[in-house]
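User:
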Amino acid sequence: VPLAMPLQLRRRSSPLLARGPAVGVAVASVVGFCLGRGPKVAASLAPWGPRLYTKGPLCSVRIRPRLTRPSTSSAISSEAAPLPQLLTLHPYRALWRLAWPTIIIALLRTSYGIIDSFWIGCLGVNELEAMGASSFAVWLLLLTGEVACLGVHAVAAVCEGAGERNGVGKAVVQGLWFSVFCGILTLFLVPLIGAYFQLVGVGHRPAVVAAGTAYLRLLIWGTAPMTACGVLASGFKGVAELRPVLIVNVVCVLLNFALDPLFIWGGFGLRPMGVGGAAVATNLCAVVATLISFKLLQWQGVTLDPAPPSRSALQRIVKIGLPISLGGIAFTFIYICLGHLLSSMGGFYLAALGLGHKVEAMAFTVTEGFGAAAATLVGQWLGAGREKEARESSIRAAIVAAAVMVPFALIFQVFAHPLVAIFTQDPDTILAATSYLRIVSFCFPFMGIEHVMDGSLMAAGDTVPSFLTGLLCNTARIPLSIWLAPKYGVSAVWLVIVTTTVAKALVKRWAFREAAFPCLPEVSRLHEPLHLGFANDVALFAVYVVPSETATSAA
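Assistant: Predicted structure:
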């Protein structure tokens, strides 16, 4: 109570303080000292402290000293606030509760592209090639929206840990504003679609360019709803309620599967739209997911009151999410350069790299699930003011993620050849892709550690180390591959990928261990220690000792 409510000094009679100003000063000093020492001691004096403060014949001046924290938040200290339900569970149970739905959600989201490819493939080779050529642009659009999703996830987890469910809603609302701005800005990219297809090397094929342009021109209009549904999903992740997100994704995947043929070939009064119909179906699914998620998040007790865009809140969200998104964009460009190197050694090597990425996508998705789970756990512990538990939860998640990836590594070692043979019958491509999977699988446990550290640093609001580490290590793959490939063949390129992945995991682990918590402004404000200071002591002394006619100015 003394931490959250101002104390009012009123002129009243009290037998205790009527005995003299010395008693009043003594009481004020003791209670003030206890309030400055900590909320537990202050709470124990709550029944007596305000009564002693507010009674006395010498309290002739009505002043209202503020004993609340200098934050706009009304949260009390983590020692007094109850922990969120997630943090009361067994640590490993809490981790699995977050990880498995996140993995399934990620797999469901990848199915959108698979469904589009399935139906568009029925149109012809040119349309399917246009879909593949558009994948890089689609990836860039998704990474742009990820800026808000990642930032909202971190802020929401911290607010939930601090007992500020209101703060979760405010972060989500600002993330929705970001999705609006993002959708408007991406519309300016429409005139650049033709130049994009020239850049990816299909500009000399008019049929492919026409189909790809139709697809991207319509898909860009869905940037805002796609980002918005991701932001709302991040709100669910922050409060550790992922079943609604899972249900929404299942519904929308089934809806997308049904709408694709309807818009591609027409029916029920709709005209055929060809490749663009798949983009329209995806956009409609994003709108449906946004509307359903908005209502479900409100049912979880998250208040989503309309509010104008806040510059400071948007800057905080962008500061967290932008480095990771830039790292993803840089990673894509680096692999384009690496692809050129492999194609110069033989076209089947580039095909082998692409097939390897498709096969290892399952393992990659699992590590992303553990990274998101670690972000929620670390964020909530930091919001609760428990730095030690935050670090322990990160280490625990890294160990579990590494252990889970060991069976994946063994499976890829034993079954790499039959897995690759599902996608191609070319013997050279099968041989190269098999060697890729068998070599790269050695770093799967470190890939799990890397993603957990990414999530932990994101929850702490310090994503720059993740960006710099990824940028340096991924960029190093190009000169190292150019240097080693002529001497040792394509296996050297695979070994370079393994070595840099291990280096990224170790460096990011070191960065998280050395991070000065809390990094997020919300944490530091919510848990800033209460300090009354010398000025407050002077004010109390004036109230109790100085004559009433000079008390006002002295206070």
